[in-house]
Amino acid sequence: MARPAGSRQRWTMLALVAPAVGVLLIWMIVPLAMTIYFSLQRFNILYPERFGFVGFRNFQILLNDPLFWSSMGRTLILVGASLAVTVILGIVLALVMEREFPGRSIARLMALAPFFVMPVVAALVWKNMLMHPVYGLLSWLTSSLGLPVVDWLQNWPMTSIVIIVAWQWTPFAMLVFLTSLQSMPEEQKEAAWLDGANPLQMFFSIILPHLSRAITAVVMIESIFFLSIFAEIFTTTGGGPGQASTTLTYIIYARAFLEWNVGSASAGGLFAVVLANIVAILLIRMVARNMQNPEKFG
Amino acid sequence: MKRTGLGTALLGHGLAFVMFFPILWMLLTSFKTEIDAFSMPPVLFYEPTLSSLNDVFARGSYSKFVTNSVITALGSTILCLLFAVPAAYQMSFHPSKRTNGTLLWMISTKMMPAVGVIMPIYLTFQYLGLLDTLLGLTLIFFLMNLPLAVWMLYTYFKEIPGEILEAARVDGAGVVEELRFILLPASIPGIASTALLCTILAWNESFWSLQLTAVDAAPLTVFIASFKAAEGMFWAKMSGASMLAIGPIVVLGWMLQRHLVRGLTFGAVK
Prior knowledge:
By secondary structure, chain A is mainly alpha-helical. Chain A has helices at 7-39, 57-63, 66-98, 104-112, 119-130, 137-144, 152-155, 157-182, 186-194, 199-227, 231-236, 248-257, 262-292; strands at 41-42, 52-53. In chain A, helix 3 crosses helix 10 (199-227), helix 8 packs across helix 10 (199-227) and helix 12 packs across helix 13.
């Protein structure tokens, strides 16, 4: 659709994109520049008079803090475990929901629903009504089976949070895999059946390779969301017991809004930005490749 | 592969039921009395009561939280569309050498974790008097969703044949008429889906709303999070308030399901 554009035309065109680009540019650059600036300052809101340049002291203190490293480790566990669960369950659900059976559309809607539940609500329901050691449904279930009652959030805080996160995000994985399965050419599957492939061979040599791009997309998008999980931890364990469920996001929140240490919180925040960007660059590469060969979608 | 069997049906409905169960349990609890909500073993057959839901409404502040959620979610969505529609139009129908780069750069702004920039935003908001205001929260939701809106609209506009717009232009339509009379009517489903996705994401957002609001501008997320302190005391009320908060969004989400993948994966999977 290339056509000679007069300069008046060009200005009109610029005026259409400029507002969106402008606000996003400000939104990206200004806060990030301020975070970098604060990370090099001694700056605690409670002691505003002790403000001053300290170079990399905030980073030095952070890197020497064992809590920082253990929370980094817990962040990776949270992301890794939730990814593994959502991808595997997502594939299982997608394979089942792709087949035709009576009431399939209702089943799909029910399986999809958790994704739209507010994270705060999801966390509260699991914490109070399902995982509560006395009145929770899970403890009633385990005790009726004669098994010991577990105080989930006290005894296994990280596992519990992974369960809540996985419950919310498995539907998203399922939906992406379903979309990808539906784009699969029917002939390919039929040919494999005719060649006498059994279901396992079918899954590993036909379906899984077809899903690989969808799996990559789910892994990258979920990683970015999982790295900044906050509401689920805030409403259930508050980072505890002790520091057993303090992740990178949570420790930055605590530095910022419980200790009011802007310098330290900013230094931690930059780590979070770097971590998210490593994942994001891979994702953007994948999307960019799609843009160049649109026929290879799916 | 497309065989129908009792086994598949049982498996499908069983898995769906397990996923849906926590929501169902909350729904059932919201119609219980507080005493029934607590009884062990759980009461399965009970006389449904609206008392908990009535209590939620009776708390005068509840309607304020709902209003705040509605204003910030809809306000940010409208802002998003106002900025995203022209940008997506230009990029899909009059692409330049820089268009692909701009689009990719826009996703990258979405990848910045909130904790990375919460301090500057908080201090700036404090300085500008935007803390705990509806305007402040609306602005954040708008900026958070803008890249997504541009992308989603871009992929929808790409599917509209450019010849229609070309024809209008030959007939003497300017950019504004072209947008208003040709593009908007042709892309209403795409625009509606984009608006729904923005609304859902803004409605459910919790990190920014927890940090930037306290009383005056607090949306439903903040109200429901306040139940965490009252652990084990008001389950029926908590369930009632939660059901009312997620009900409309789950329904909107169901309507949107087909378009969700396109919006959230930036077209990386189709």
